[in-house]
Amino acid sequence: MFQRLREDISCVFERDPAARNRFEVLTAYPGVHALILHRMNHWLWRHRLRWLARFFSVIARLLTGIEIHPAAKIGRRFFIDHGLGVVIGETAEVGDDCTLYQGVTLGGTSWEPGKRHPTLGNDVVVGAGAKVLGPLHVGDGARIGSNAVVVKDVPAAATMVGIPARVARIADQATPPTEADQRRAETARRIGFEAYGATRDMPDPVANAINAILDHVHHTDARLQEMCAALRALGAQVNDSEIPEIENCAMDDEPAAKQ
Questions:
Q1: 244 and 165 assigned to the same domain
Q2: 114 and 10, same structural domain?
Q3: 59: domain CATH number?
């Protein structure tokens, strides 16, 4: 039990940069409180003290804003970030190393007895406001986008977006980033677009436009270098000084902007 508790607290530091120390996590994180109470309620449920388990689950919901049915099966290192409005149904199953954000529902679509709620594999992330409905299976490493509504099985390592949710991308962990991906990331870093990496998995038209701009900047730099080399070969005097990095220019201009 205490080993599970240590794991539940330690995983918070890997997924929430706002976490500062274990005492803060243990005392000020509703997601951790809800998980601890659920593990107690699940023990009561398995030992057929089911009314007591349901009663304490209501208390847990009042204290944390997170509703987890005591019969739900939760794996190791489960993290609910923020957590308000999260609902996990009776026959839901959650694997190891999963993360849920606020407003997530693991719900059912039938009033028939039996398996009615989803099963999440390992290392699944469900974004804020997403709904995963029915006795479907979400594969290992899948990502459910914010506000998506999932009503069918999700392949492993897939990214799901939309209503109803569709597969936007299936990550291939064995395939390294392409040269174009690396070049775009470097150009984005130089111009200060730190959020570039966060949009790679989404078919976002804004991200696609930014990728095109990054490619254009790279090719423009290459063409300018070719032109300068050709002019030097013809005997023209070309300024050999290097073009300053954009991030350095921004730092140099900052004092003037403050004035």
A1: no
A2: yes
A3: 2.160.10.10
Identify the residue whose tokens are 């790679």: 200
pLDDT tens for each residue of 172-231: 655 566 666 666 566 555 544 443 333 344 555 555 666 677 677 778 878 888 888 888
Residues 6+ away with beta carbon under 8 Å from 237: none
**What's the domain range around 71?**
2-170
| Sign of torsion over alpha carbons 252, 253, 256, 257 | negative
Cα distance between residue 192 and residue 174, in whole Å: 29
Place of tokens 């939760």: 74
Residues 7, 130, single domain; the answer is yes
Domain count, the chain: 2
Query: What DSSP designation does 82 have?
Result: S
**Claim to verify: residue 142 and residue 34 sit in the same structural domain:** yes
Question: In Å, what is the CA distance from 122 to each residue of 31, 47, 97?
Answer: 18, 26, 6
DSSP E strand boundaries for the chain: 67-68, 73-74, 79-80, 87-88, 93-94, 99-100, 105-107, 119-120, 125-126, 131-133, 137-138, 143-144, 149-150, 158-161, 166-170
